[in-house]
Specification:
The structure holds 2 protein chains of 2 kinds. By secondary structure, chain A is mostly helical. Chain A is 75% helix and 0% strand. Chain A has one domain: MetI-like fold, CATH 1.10.3720.10. Chain A has 13 helices and no strands. In chain A, helix 5 (104-139) runs antiparallel to helix 10 and helix 8 packs antiparallel against helix 10. Chain B is of the alpha+beta class. Chain B has 2 domains: 3-297 and 522-547, Periplasmic binding protein-like II (D-Maltodextrin-Binding Protein, domain 2), CATH 3.40.190; 304-519, Dipeptide-binding Protein, domain 3 (Roll), CATH 3.10.105.10. Helix content of chain B is 32%, strand content 19%. Chain B has 17 helices and 22 strands. Chain B has helices spanning 11-29, 31-34, 62-68, 125-136, 145-155, 180-184, 197-207, 263-271, 283-291, 319-328, 331-338, 368-377, 401-414, 426-435, 455-460, 478-489, 493-509, and strands spanning 7-8, 42-47, 76-78, 90-92, 95-100, 106-111, 158-165, 168-173, 218-224, 228-233, 254-259, 277-279, 295-297, 304-309, 343-345, 387-392, 419-424, 443-448, 513-519, 523-525, 529-530, 546-547. In chain B, helix 10 (319-328) runs antiparallel to helix 12 and helix 16 (478-489) packs antiparallel against helix 17 (493-509). The longest helix of chain B has 19 residues, at 11-29. The chains are: A mainly alpha, B alpha+beta. Chain A binds chain B through residues 77, 79, 81-82, 84-85, 99-100, 169, 172-173, 254-255, 259-261, 271, 273-279, and chain B through 262-264, 267-268, 271, 282, 284-285, 288, 333, 337-338, 393, 400, 402-403, 405-407, 409-410, 413, 420-425, 428.
């Protein structure tokens, strides 16, 4: 019986040790510095082939547009009116020519220099502002938080597209104004994501513990809460980028964005609309590029969401 | 009062001319009109934008007048049943005959008898006076400020009027007004056509636009906003029994106008057979539609797309700089390549289909070398600052504004100028335009035109500086003003046309206005649409149309 007892206590001891080790390992892992967003991105990509392919595609598109002046066969505004509306595979013009007789491939490459930043920069700016607003609102739920969230609620009363068109319309056309209007319409959405996450996280034991240790609010917000709300923000931001590329193109399409003759995928799509029945390539090629880029951002966003999901991480 | 009566184009001579006209038409049109026109059927017209409210005197825009013209008659109209130009003949419509005193200030108008509005109200001199009061007399109960604003040019010389008999009215002018008739038939922003006073009494100025009642060949049935405007043949139309082809009853039972604001969808609707006739189609699609068997009718019209230069801006205040702009633009390229021959290059801003138009006038042909020379000789030899040119993204009569402006921009850049385009939605654009060109706005786009040469005054007289008029580029030249003032009161047609031409040529010599193209306003229709006449005007008469199906 004693042996049995001893065996039992040993087994208990073993089990206890294993549990402790597991707990320590977990604690050690949890205590790890929050993973940087680049690292998270990498983790996501390794896990998800589709997301990896999408990311590579986006990278190629970005490189192609950055090096457009060296890659493009013509100048963006160089026109050959005698060849206007010629279809793809016309000699010297792989993707054909538009209504002014400009090379579509060239304008696509140059167009990315407008269409990508016009969507990505506002997402970055809006995310930065929203994280601050959301953290404050989620942490100080009464008072300041209430004011911030109610003000942002007003923006929810308007359809996003309407609001952006109204803002861009009031400010007048131009690249800066489109970016500004996208920033404004994005803030309420991203802030709500941050706010919800902050609310959940600030109820957690470790936050209470930090508070009990006498940590200042600033320290708690930035050291304890912020690292734990970044995941949903990164996922949301990446997914919305695709949408914003289309959205910015839409504003250009309506004449509120960049001004002709600057190439922009939205403007290119719009300019081909009138000749859709005669020369469908003028509209559809930039349209397809827009679609692929938006899709790629979505797939990368999905990949990130999977990677950052705690249930899938264990 | 020594009243030397000049009987002009009375009823009997009108019908004689019409008979001759019909004969000429029958001969020239050959086998097409040899077919016997069929009565009946519905014609569906695809419009390029939604019409304004249907108040004929106060509604803005050509689109609305294209609709209203079928329901409303005026004292005078243009004969749009013949395609012969260059200018459609002005004929009496509800005015049977008229006499003008020798000094040109007294107009005695004899009305047609037996005319009724669609609601049964009789047309008499009182009804005419009531209508003119609505547009002109602030103290009248029915006065409409909007109608007044739209028709101010038409009534600018009117001093008083007097009902002389049941069907005779006398208009007294403060001064002779040479283009009085020319302006009477204009329909840019409201037309001086007549509405039923008793119908107005039911609805008032606010709502009469929803219930249009005139004396025209078609009467209003219903309107579903954004969807359709339906009208049907008015059986008691005064011209129904007339042998005169200009006034006879329409062949069609019904006429429906459907707005398709998107040009591509207008093409699709035509191809799908949803509409019978469409206007303002993308030039590139027209040739293809013609190859597919659709009928295309086009011709010169009183239309010009032009830019006004801001005379108050640095560099642009130098004539050499402005002339360099003129020489830099390849108008032939725009008209023939970009617009596929659906427009004519414009070398002056007087429009074809206008008595002061000179087809040989070509002061600034495309000459990039000369443009560079003039630019080098100007006060801004380096090309000057980046100019901002404002253009609309669409809108009635603008064809394809962005591609046209991009072409101009490229031409200017090739000559050494730096131009940035700023695009706005049409209604927003118009609100800027009416305000006049602000600082750092170097050029404004406009598409407009009239058959009356008073058009020259409308755009270039300094008394019409924006916001009180349409001189939006602040062009001012005392000599031009004096010529225009003289033309206004000149009653001799030939002399008056010449004065307007002189004024126009002076403005062009100073290169203050940059004409681009004259639209030939192509209409594309199903092969079974017969009898359509493309008169040199911005609106058309559908009474000649019949359906062969």
């Amino acid at each position: 019986m004693t042996d049995a007892m001893q065996d039992f206590s040993r087994a208990e001891l073993e089990a206890g040790r294993a549990a402790r080790e597991a707990w320590e390992a977990r604690a050690k892992r949890d205590a790890r510095k929050p993973e940087s967003s680049l690292r998270l991105l990498w983790t996501a990509l390794k896990r998800d082939k589709l997301a990896m392919a999408s990311a590579v595609f986006l990278l190629l598109v970005a490189l192609a547009t950055i090096f457009a002046p060296w890659l493009a066969p013509y100048g963006p505004n160089e026109a050959n009116p005698s060849l206007r509306l010629e279809p793809p595979l016309t000699e010297g013009h792989l993707l054909g020519l538009d209504g002014q007789g400009r090379d579509i491939l060239t304008r696509l490459l140059y167009g990315g220099r407008v269409s990508l930043p016009i969507a990505l920069i506002p997402v970055a700016i809006a995310t930065f502002i929203s994280v601050i607003l959301g953290l404050i609102a989620g942490f100080y739920r009464k008072g300041v938080g209430e004011v911030i969230m109610r003000v942002l609620d007003i923006f929810y009363a308007f359809p996003t597209v309407m609001l952006a068109i109204a803002i861009a319309g009031i400010l007048g056309p131009g690249m800066m104004n489109v970016m500004l209007s996208i920033v404004i319409v994005l803030i309420p959405y991203i802030t709500r994501v941050v706010y919800t996450a902050t609310m959940v996280v600030s109820e957690e034991d470790f936050v209470q513990a930090a508070r009990a240790c006498g940590a200042s609010d600033t320290r708690i917000i930035f050291s304890e809460v912020l690292p734990n709300v970044m995941s949903p923000v990164i996922v949301y931001g990446t997914t919305t980028m695709g949408l914003q590329v289309v959205f910015a193109a839409g504003l250009s399409f309506l004449g509120l964005g960049v001004q002709p003759p600057i190439a922009d995928w939205g403007i290119m799509t719009a300019s081909g609309r009138d000749v859709l029945s005669v020369a469908p390539h003028v509209s559809t090629i930039p349209g397809i590029v827009l679609l692929l880029v938006a899709l790629a951002f979505n797939l990368v966003g999905d990949g990130l969401r999977d990677a950052l999901d705690p249930r899938l991480r264990l | 009062m020594s009243l030397k009566s000049v009987r002009r184009r009375g009823a009997s001579s009108a019908s004689l001319a019409a008979a001759l006209g019909a004969l000429a038409l029958g001969v020239s049109a050959g086998p097409v009109t040899a077919e016997e026109p069929k009565r009946g059927g519905t014609l569906i017209v695809g419009l390029d934008s939604e019409a304004d409210f249907l108040d004929n005197q106060a509604a803005g825009g050509w689109v609305t007048w294209r609709v209203n013209k079928n329901m409303f008659d005026a004292l005078w109209t243009e004969d749009l049943t013949r395609a012969e130009g260059p200018v459609p003949e002005i004929i009496g419509e509800l005015a049977e005959s008229w006499e003008v005193s020798e000094d040109g200030t007294e107009w005695t108008v004899k009305l047609r008898e037996g005319v009724t509005f669609h609601d049964g109200t009789a047309l008499n001199a009182e009804a005419v006076k009531w209508n003119i009061d609505r547009m002109w007399n602030e103290d009248s109960e029915q006065f409409s400020a909007k109608a007044n604003g739209c028709t101010a040019f038409s009534w600018q010389a009117l001093e008083s009027m007097e009902v002389v008999g049941e069907h005779t009215i006398k208009l007294v002018m403060a001064a002779p007004y040479g283009e009085f008739l020319g302006k009477q038939v204009d329909g840019g922003c409201g037309n001086v056509s007549l509405m039923s006073p008793s119908n107005w009494a039911k609805w008032g100025n606010e709502n009469v636009g929803e219930h249009p009642v005139g004396t025209g060949p078609f009467e209003f049935v219903e309107r579903v906003r954004g969807e359709k405007i339906v009208m049907e043949r008015y059986e008691d139309y005064w011209g129904a029994d007339s042998d005169d082809p200009r006034f006879r009853a329409p062949y069609l039972d019904r006429l429906i106008f459907v707005p398709y604001t998107d040009a591509a969808s207008r093409v699709a609707a035509l191809e799908a057979g949803e509409i019978d006739i469409a206007m303002s189609l993308p030039p590139d699609s027209i040739q293809r539609l013609e190859e597919k068997g659709f009928t295309v009718k086009q011709g010169p019209s009183p239309h010009v797309i032009y830019f006004t230069l801001n005379m108050r801006e640095e560099c642009l205040d130098d004539p050499n700089y402005r002339k360099a702009i003129q020489f830099a633009i390849n108008r032939e390229g725009i008209a023939n390549d970009l617009l596929g021959g659906t427009a004519l290059p414009a070398y002056g801003f007087v429009v074809p289909g206008n008595n002061s138009f000179d087809p040989d006038y070509k002061p600034y042909p495309y000459d990039p070398e000369k443009a560079k020379e003039l630019l080098a000789a100007s006060s801004c030899p380096d090309g000057g600052p980046t100019m901002t040119w404002l253009i609309p993204t669409g809108g009635s009569g603008n064809i394809i504004p962005v591609p046209i402006a991009e072409w101009v921009q490229r031409n200017l850049q090739e000559a050494g100028f730096d131009v940035a385009l700023e695009t706005y939605e049409w209604q927003t654009y118009l609100s800027f335009w009416w305000r006049g060109q602000q600082e750092d706005q170097h050029a404004y786009w406009m598409s407009w035109g009239m058959t009356t040469p008073i058009w020259v005054e409308v755009v270039s007289h300094s008394k019409w500086f924006a916001p009180n008029g349409s001189n939006v580029g602040w062009y001012e030249n005392a000599e031009v003003d004096a010529l225009l003032d003289q033309a206004l009161t000149e009653m001799d047609d030939a002399k008056r046309y010449d004065l307007y031409k002189q004024a126009h040529d002076l403005v062009m010599e100073e290169a203050a206005i940059v004409p681009i193209v004259h639209d030939s306003t192509p209409y594309v229709m199903q092969p079974y649409v017969k009898g359509y006449v493309h008169a040199p005007q911005n609106w058309q008469d559908f009474r000649t149309v019949w359906l062969d199906n």
